[in-house]
Amino acid sequence: MNEASNHQAPLRTWLITGSTSGIGRELALQALENGDTVSALARDTSSLAELAQAHGERLLLVPADVRDEGAVRDAVERTLARFGRIDVVANNAGYGLFGAVEEASDAQARAVFDTNVFGVLNVLRATLPVLRAQRSGHILQASSVYGQSAHPGVGLLAATKYAVEGLSDALAAEVAPLGIKVTLIQPGMTATPFLANLDVAAGLDDYDGTVREVHKAIGELPASAFSAAARIAAGIRAAVDAPNPPLRLALGTSSATGMRPALEARIADLDGWLHVTDAVDG
Ligand SMILES: NC(=O)c1ccc[n+]([C@@H]2O[C@H](COP(=O)([O-])OP(=O)(O)OC[C@H]3O[C@@H](n4cnc5c(N)ncnc54)[C@H](OP(=O)(O)O)[C@@H]3O)[C@@H](O)[C@H]2O)c1
User: Fold this and answer.
1) How crowded is residue 199: how many other Cβ atoms within 10 Å of its Cβ?
2) What whole-number distance in Å separates Cα of residue 281 and Cα of residue 162?
3) Kind plus residue range of the DSSP H or E element containing 109
4) Distance from the alpha carbon of residue 117 to the mean position of ligand 1, in angstroms
5) How many structural domains does the chain have?
6) What are the pocket residues of ligand 1 if the criterion is a CB atom closer than 6 Å to any ligand atom?
């Protein structure tokens, strides 16, 4: 056996945004445990120092706020300088804004789009040239049960996830001929610091009976209602390992049960109003 065949080549190189906590951190951890290499992007990488110590050269910590296009581009360059390629882009960073649509201020609405949508676009523009040159790669887009459904109090959060879903539908078809796969990750309620990191809009009594009641109900959910982040990460890795990954991957029963009625209601509206739809054509 020669030296080259003795060498255990890394299986994949991941670039993961929002890797400090929750799903992103679990994904980084599991990829590293699998023997892969990881470029972990985070606003503050200090909480990942222990992980870096445990995994040495296979983990690159890169400070980057996804809202900063220049920082994201630098992070991609550093990733290439260290690992030479990128196989999986986990566009995972994001946060929630809860409150009635009318209650969210302009600043709050723009801020959540800045991270959840324009941050995703920054990462896409920085990584796609690499994946296109490779003619390979898999992009994981952080969506949610709220990427296909919404209830009172999550309108702005859902708006960002619907935006990611819409652009990903087009993106998937644009990059498939170039050898690049796209999967929308749609977790349901997951036990991460997500709820603790929420921005909350409030102020109008008229929404107490809807928005505040829903928020209270979410706050009172038992721990068993939340999927473990490690299981969400395992589900994501199963899609990455699959030869034909899905465009949409619901993760957790709460995701499937949350989305199904919304999806059925869309078809019901489409079918139920076809007489009006078709009448428009004269
Ligand atoms: N937990 C759920 O129930 C759930 C359900 C459906 C979808 N999701 C989605 O899953 C993704 C991960 O969320 P999570 O549940 O793991 O929540 P989390 O534990 O709060 O993690 C969010 C991550 O995003 C990072 N982040 C936020 N804003 C950023 C910015 N501007 N630049 C760079 N990083 C930023 C955070 O980093 P910092 O440490 O710097 O804040 C953190 O690492 C999100 O897109 C979320 O919408 C979550």
Assistant:
1) 17
2) 29
3) helix 106-113
4) 13
5) 1
6) 17-24, 42-44, 65-67, 92-95, 115, 119, 142, 144, 187, 189-190, 192-194, 197
Give the CATH number, domain containing residue 174.
3.40.50.720
Task: Give all strands of the β-sheet with 137-142 in edge-to-edge order.
Answer: 59-63, 37-42, 13-17, 88-91, 137-142, 180-187, 248-251
pTM above 0.90, yes or no: yes
The pLDDT mean for the chain works out to 95
Mean pLDDT along residues 253-282: 97
Name the one residue in this structure whose structure tokens are 């473990």.
Answer: 228
Report the separation in Å between the CA atom of 22 and the middle of ligand 1, taken as the mean of its atom positions: 7
Q: How far apart are CA 196 and CA 243, in angstroms?
A: 36
Question: Which ligand 1 atom is nearest residue 23's CA?
Answer: 16
- Over range 163-182, report the average pLDDT: 98
Burial class (CB in 10 A: 0-12, 13-18, 19+), 225: middle
**Containing structural domain, residue 109:** 3-279
Structure tokens at 192: 């991460």
How are beta strands 88-91 and 59-63 bridged, if at all?
unpaired
pLDDT tens, 49-94? 999 999 999 999 999 999 999 999 999 999 999 999 999 999 999 9
Tens digit of pLDDT for each residue in 117-133?
A: 999 999 999 999 999 99
Q: Which of 157, 166, 161 is nearest to 147 (CA)?
A: 161
Q: In this structure, what are the phi and psi dihedrals at residue 196, rounded to the nearest 5 degrees?
A: -70, -30
